[in-house]
Amino acid sequence: MQFIEVTGLAGVRSAVIRFRRPGSGLEFLLFPMIHLGEARFYREVTSRLRERCDLVVAEGVGEGSPGADALVASYARLDGHERLGLVVQDIDFDSLGVPVINPDMSGAEFERGFRRLPLQERVVLAAVVPAMVAGMRVFGTRRYLARHLTTEDLLTDAEEAAQDALPGLDDLVLRRRDRLLTRALTDAHRAWEERSGGFTIGVVYGAEHMRAASRTLTELGYHAADAEWLTVFLVEPPVSG
């Protein structure tokens, strides 16, 4: 199953996947997110959440974690960069008009985990993140940014290598937060599965977390019924004028 597709012609695309369960009116709509994209992509996601969802489960580590802020800086400083023409994820959940739950880590919890990372991993992050940001601001292109964004239900060799290189960070950023997401989806299923009539729960999380989301829903008896592709950004930005 593909969550994020990258092609030269279509650019970077996100698959909005609907999961349904036989005999139930409850369905889950997965929105695999890339946190840097064209403003139009985030407007389209916002529109679908508002029009199609009765409840939203949204990603977002709480405030108050310098460690989380440092990781976010890897893409936040590219917001509005003239050459890239991309913006940081921009979804105003408060304006959707539907309930939103956030099962993610608090800032304090994330910071405790960050401070417990092995010293070697923290040193690598302190050196690599600023260098990546500086390099992207000076030399970065959309094509370069798109190189490693493809996300499927199975890990790539590059992703496995990255996890092996920074196991503590992988556990903190991905695995521990996946467990929180899994618990939230299971609780939502139990709370709403007997509801009469249709009910749609939107899941707005980074694409890598969608492996855990789709696996959990499959174990609960749901299946991927259909998908709609949304363009996150074109590899070659349109020429103005």
> What's the number of structural domains?
1
Number of helices: 8
Rg calculated over all Cα atoms: 18 Å
Largest sheet: 8 strands, mixed
Number of strands: 10
Shape: globular
Oligomer: single chain
Instruction: Name the average pLDDT.
Output: 90
Structural class: alpha/beta
Strand content: 15-25%
**Roughly how many Å apart are the termini?**
38 Å
Q: Order of SSEs, N→C?
A: EEEEHEHEEHHHEHHEHE
Sequence stretches where pLDDT stays below 50 over 5 or more residues: none
Overview of the structural elements:
There is one protein chain. By secondary structure, the chain is an alpha/beta fold. The chain has one domain. 44% of the residues lie in helices and 23% in strands. It contains 8 helices and 10 strands. Strands 1, 2, 3, 5, 7, 8, 9 and 10 form an 8-stranded mixed sheet that branches. Strands 4-6 form a two-stranded antiparallel sheet. A hairpin with a 5-residue loop joins β2 and β3. α2 runs parallel beside α4. The protein is globular and about 55 Å long.
Keywords:
241 residues, alpha/beta, eight-stranded mixed sheet, 8 helices, 10 strands, globular
Please sum up the structure shown.
With 241 residues, this protein is of the alpha/beta class.
